[in-house]
Structure formats: structure tokens, C-alpha cells
# Entry
Amino acid sequence: MAKLGELAGLIRSKNAGPFELTIDILFDDAGAFERVRASGVLTREAVAAIYRLPAAQVKFFVVPDALAFKASIPRPRFQSDVLDSDNHGGQQYAPLIDIEIP
Amino acid sequence: MTEARVLSATGVCGSGFREASLLAGIAMQPHFIGCDAGSTDPGPFSLGTGGTAFPLRAIKRDLRLMLLAARRAHIPLLVGSAGTAGGAPHVALFRRLIEEIAREEKLAFPMALIHAEQDKAYLKRRLAEGRITPLAPAPEFDHATIDRAIRIVGMMGEEPWLRALDEGAEVIIAGRSSDCAIFAGIPARMGVDPGIAWHAAKILECGAAAVVARPSPDCMFATLRDDHFDLTPLDPALRCSPLSVAAHSLYENGDPFRLVESSGVLDLTHATYEALDDRRVRVHGSRFEPASRYTVKLEGAELAGYQTIVLGSIRDPYIIRQIDSWVARLTERVHARVAEVLGGDAEASRYVFNVRVYGRNGTMGPLEPVTEIRSHELCLVIEATASTQEIATTIASMARHQALHLPIPEWRGFITGMACPYSPAYIERGAIYRFCVNHVVEPDDPYEMFPIEHVKVG
# Structure
């Protein structure tokens, strides 16, 4: 087992406009990317569970040319609205780091 | 064979670039210099206040270097989304900076201003016609939203840029624009395949962001030919790789394969990335599907209220272990004090009281999966948001006093349970704003929302 954060070159989150949040999981080498892809652990449903959303609200992409996975979700709060805590959306990825990959 | 050469100065005007990189780009004989100056990333304040996210001195430094380089090379300079939000005050500000630089450097040239701030009567008419439709997710948008909005801008496509050039402009300062439209219009009109032109534009609008590792913002150069483009970073220390360029298509996009523009969709599904050497990358296969209906995205902000905050910290482990119930008791007491002090004031009836607990879940709020507090201290941001600054400060001041002396069962007697670094403890944040629209308009043509004003500089 390894944590996703140990296998990925970069895990990041960011606004995709003021109303959507997007999460990128990027790999430096094809081996680690293929290992995660083959594990079947990193899925739309896994992302939905972390952000407590119905799976239908999660856009999920595998981007082999970029050795990347990507997920986009509706922002929990619209950017900079009174109770939003992350104007740039840049620190919402942390729970993904600990996903265990066989 | 068509060859279009494009120099992007940096990802955001005001974020900076190496002067040596800009000059190296000029030596490669670009057809124009482009630079994006805007973003919603800093939040709605720029739309709300008319201010900029980057400091004016930093913006002026970038504008001066770009303007001098473009004038010496006799090529157009295209700057889009002026002043972060691209509304009327932002375009006026950039115009003033350009005129100052022209005076200081003894330059003269024809300039076009392309306006993007939208007339409220126009938007109401299009809304009534059913020609304003929501994207997902979107807030409610009706006549009242339009009335409440401080400022709504449209995001222009490439067409107004090309028209301004055709009408004789050599420098263009535009309001809110599609970042890519700044860079895509000229190469596509020169005969480059539109898929290639828009994909190159998507890379160029972020300056050097598509390199393997970018220590600080810098320029990027693209050479576009009929069916491919080559990327060359201009700082010799930077390099692009097929992976870094492919990965860039993910950045700040909801969908990594399909990027929606006013005039169509850039489809990267079949794009291929090839290393030309250890720092240049060639891209093939990107496609552009023309849209069946032309749409213009709107961005707008409204006043969310006035805010006053109190910063405090807690070191007492007994308070830390009961922080959730401590915040709940504080909140209850603050609501009770507001009722006692402001109860007769209708203006004060709508306020938001919020306590952010850093060290607990300040960053992720209710989505935070970690429940155990591992820190020996917590930071609190106590916030009051109300319809006037005076009410917000009244509530925040009362909250400070309630928080200081809120009792806990472990201690008998009068406690002081929060440390405040500042005197006065409160900080007035002034007006705060929220984004109030995520919709598109279907105009009659790509120009009606973006009037072009020609001015003679110098």
C-alpha cells in the first residue's frame, strides 16, 4: 500500500471560475499513474465521498497524455461568499493525499 | 505556409516577467505582443470596488516594458481584461497608465479602448427576451439581481479585437475578455487552423505557466503553422516538456478536454505533444468546433454587506478540547446581546455572525474529515457581517467581550479565555462583495456588447 500523496508528483485544487472547484492529481512517471489507474481506487465515487456530494455532481476525468486525473465539483460555497473559507480554492485537496493505493 | 509568431509577456499584467525574456521574444520577430490582465481569482472585490488585484506600480512597470518593446518593433500590443475585472473604471485606469507612460517615454500611437461593462437596461431586455441563460451552478438571476449588481461585465471574444485592429489601433486596452481571445484571433485570421490557434492561446494566456517548473512569472513564445504550434520559453533556464504542456490544459478548467469560448469549443481530445528538443514542444491535433449559437459569458458582483472581524487565539487546553461547544455558547450569547442592544433597529435584523476556528477546521469548514485537534493553540477569526459598518463593528465588539470572559466548567471564577494581538481588537474590513451571476447572453452579433473607442495617444 502507498498513499496517493506519495505516488503523485502534484495534487492541487483551484477555482475553475467562482462557482466550481477543480482538483488535479498529476504524476511524474507513467508507472505510478498506471498503478493508480489499475487500482480502481481513485474514482468519481471516491471523490464524491470525500466532498460529501452525490456522484452525479462530480466530473471525473482520466488524462493519459498529462499522466493525470482530474475532478471538478460545485464549490461548497461560491467563491468569497460570506462563509467561504478559501477564496482561491487552493487548499481543498488535502484529504486526497491519504487515499490508500494497493 | 502560414506562420504566426506570438509573444505573451506574462500570465497577468502586473505579476512581472524578465526584461531579458521579453527582448529575446522580440528578437524572434513576433506579429504582436499579448497580455492578459484579469481574472476572477482574486475574488469579487475588483468588480465591486473598481480596484485591481496587482499593485499599480507593478502594472505600470509591465505596461511600460511591453509598450516600449511593441513600439520599437512596430507591432501591436493587445492587453485584455484590464485592471483585473475589466469594467469601466479598470479600462479608464489602464488608459491613464498608458497615457502617463507615453508622456514619460515620448511615444505617440493610435489606441483603442474596448469596453466590456454592460448597460443594465440592455441586460434586462435580453433577460426578458429569454436570451440570458444560466451555466451550472448559477445563482438566481433576475431583474432584481441586475438592479442590485454594482457592476456586470461581458467576456468578449476575438471579434472586437480584430475589428479594433482593422480600424487602425496599434495598442488595444480591452475590458473583460476571454483570456484566449487576446491570442487566438490574429493567428486564426492569418490562416492557422482554429484548433491550433485556440490551443496555443490557452497556453499563451498564462505566460510561462506551462513550463516544467516556473520559479517566477515570465514570457512565453509560440510559433503557429497551419496544423501545429511550437512553444519556446524565453528564459533559457526554463523548459517545456510534452508532459508539462499537456498538464497545463488542466489548470483552472473544469473540463480538461473541452474549453468553451464565445464562438465555439476547443477540443483537446486528440491533441498530441512532441518534444522538439529538451525545452521546446510541438503540439498537433487540437480541434475547434464552431458554436451553433454565439454566447457571451457575464461576470458581476453585488454588495454582500460590511464586515468587522476580531482576531484571537486560545492556548488553554480545557477550552481547546471543548471548542465546538465554546463557539456554540459564544454564538448564543452574541445573538442575545444583539437582541438587547440592537433589538429595536430594523437595519440590524439581518446580520451574519461566524467564528472560524483555525487549528480545527478553518480551511475546509464542515468538509474537514479530521476531527481530532492536534494543536496546542487555536486561532479564531470572529466575524460580523451586517448592512452597515457601524452595526458590524457593534456586533464584533460585543463578541470580543463575550469571548474574552466566556466561562468553562473546569475553572471557577472570572476567566480571560482568548488572547487578542491588536488594540482595538476589531478590524473593519469595509464593504465586501459576492459574485452574483454565472450566465451567458446570446447577442445579435459579437460586437454589440463591446463598444470600441479610438483615442490618439501623444
Remarks:
- The longest helix of chain A spans residues 30-39.
- The first strand of chain A starts at residue 2 and ends at 3.
